[in-house]
Amino acid sequence: MNNLMDKCCDKCTHEPAAPCKDYIKCRKEGPICHQDEACKQKRADFLAAIHLPEQSAKRNVLICAGTGCVSSGSPKLRKKLEEELAANGLADKVTITTTGCHGFCEQGPLMIVEPHKTFYTRVTEDDVAEIVASDLVKGETVERLLYKDPNTGEAAKTYETVPFYARQQRLVLHNCGHINPEDISEYIANDGYSGFARALLELTPDQVVEEVKTSGLRGRGGGGFPTGMKWGFVRQAQGDKKYVVCNADEGDPGAFMDRSVLEGDPHAVLEGMMICGYAVGADEGYLYVRAEYPLAIQRLKIAIAQAEEKGILGDNILNSGFNFHLKIKAGAGAFVCGEETALLTSIEGNRGMPRVRPPFPAQSGLWGKPTCLNNVETFANVPQILRNSGAWYASMGTEKSKGTKIFALTGKVNNTGLVEVPMGISMRDIIFAIGGGIQDGKKFKAVQIGGPSGGCLPDELLDLPVDYDSLISAGAMMGSGGLVVMDETTCMVDVARFFLTFTQSESCGKCTPCREGTTRMLEILTRICNGEGKMEDIDTLERLGRVVKNTALCGLGQTCPNPILSTLRYFKDEYIAHIQDKRCPAGACSALLTYVIDPEKCKGCGKCLRSCPAGAITGEKKQPHVIDAAKCIKCGSCLMGCKFEAIIKA
């Protein structure tokens, strides 16, 4: 391998130009022609040195092994498939690849048969024999297992024709669901580590930082701070020791973006961190992953071990003189540790609580040393930027929000799952074109974007472009990527209470505005939902929200009032209805509900009477029944059990 490092290239001005015994010094001090054939050859030699695998000509069956599909039984599918292939004499003709998350979690377990890319959904062990006999033996598609559009009923045969995927632009997720995350050779075969090769062999650290700046990549963890600028700060910081830290402490309710990337393409995150380490001058990195992600941690451990075995990670990487080591820190699950200074405090072995800034981590971070901290999605973008150039990445998205963004699409939408879309796409396209619209034909009401600290946006903002600045101006935020869709049955006051309940319980209690402010706001919201609110509560909520937003110590406290302030901004009429009319327009707040039986629809079947735990329903057989409001505990069991729709909310 020494021949890889003899000199930078023929145009290196450092003396002596050839042979150069100090390659790192030569590359830093002498300019390099990035298109020079010698540079290109060095990258080719680098990739050859880590053994690019030969592509198999066999047919291939991809089985999703992300957390969602694993919980639905996908590991059993592989065993059954192996048995059926052996029984049909196909064991040597068909390969099986267990992959990471495809994103379409509600349709899992998922299976794709290559090369014709037939996409099968909700596959069970009982379906495997038919897939082998029909698809793999006869070449006939098993139609009943294809995805069918909930609105049109049309079947999609291939992966690309499924509407859920057709409108996405999968950059970070391009490998997820298509390669084995536990096999480094598959990552390398798909251009893996070529971005690191370009950085290490062709660019100076400063040039890497400039490339990232040119891309316009902004941090995907919530705040949207320019990534290249942060890297530049750490590079310029003085210190004999620097760190790179990946924030994989994904604590938002319903969010699983980072988990899926770590499970489906862990080497992309490692490569991004290695590029960052080279750029900022760090030789050590930490992946802070919450302990509730055991599969992600397992695959990261495998990826790190494989990279070390290949010589891509460790000391004197491929004799370049660059050293980089990675460690995994399992977090205990505190939501506040998603805040960068609290995360660093936790890695140091202390209780995760935020620190006063400045100094910022770029100057004084982990153990007081300059630290570059980005989240999983941010690091996973970096290899493609170095592979294809910053200008290429900057060509996607909007003027101030470049590239793509991953969202966990959940709630009252037909197609739930993980989606990656270009910045600037409208909310309408995400919810209706990709998400397939609202479940059960109900009316769209609002979308909550940005996790528990995000804002709730109404239907009149469905055409709002999804980018950092537009969302902030609308009272929401990009956040890490949670996106919850709500329909007409959702009470917006109760939604604000739900998210504030979460952030209030997760507050570390260090600063008074967050500790006391969230508690007082939650008390007021609870009173309103119970029909005990006063009109002055609205003004109090707005005032408290602004105070907490402006004075809390960290991002958790500063953003936790967003659900309240945004619902007051767009759905104030619901607050007024709860307070003045003692009525929940959505019929969701049980304290404000009264259940009554429509005598014209009631058949006297007695099912509601038998299901009522409070004995509040009386009536003779085949005669209209009656609910005693004084005894009714408003559990809703009668409503759910009535097949005649005779019970209504009043």
From TrEMBL:
UniProt-listed SUPFAM superfamilies: 4Fe-4S ferredoxins, Nqo1 FMN-binding domain-like, Nqo1 middle domain-like, Nqo1C-terminal domain-like, Thioredoxin-like
PROSITE patterns, alphabetized: 4FE4S_FER_1 (PS00198), 4FE4S_FER_2 (PS51379), COMPLEX1_51K_2 (PS00645)
The keyword Metal-binding is annotated on this UniProt entry: yes
Residue intervals of the 4Fe-4S ferredoxin-type domain: 593-622, 623-650
A Pfam short name: NADH_4Fe-4S
Family designation: Belongs to the complex I 51 kDa subunit family.
UniProt keywords, alphabetically: 4Fe-4S, Homeobox, Iron, Iron-sulfur, Metal-binding
GO molecular-function terms, A-Z: 4 iron, 4 sulfur cluster binding; DNA binding; FMN binding; metal ion binding; NADH dehydrogenase (ubiquinone) activity
Protein name: NAD-reducing hydrogenase subunit HoxF
SMART domains linked: NADH_4Fe-4S
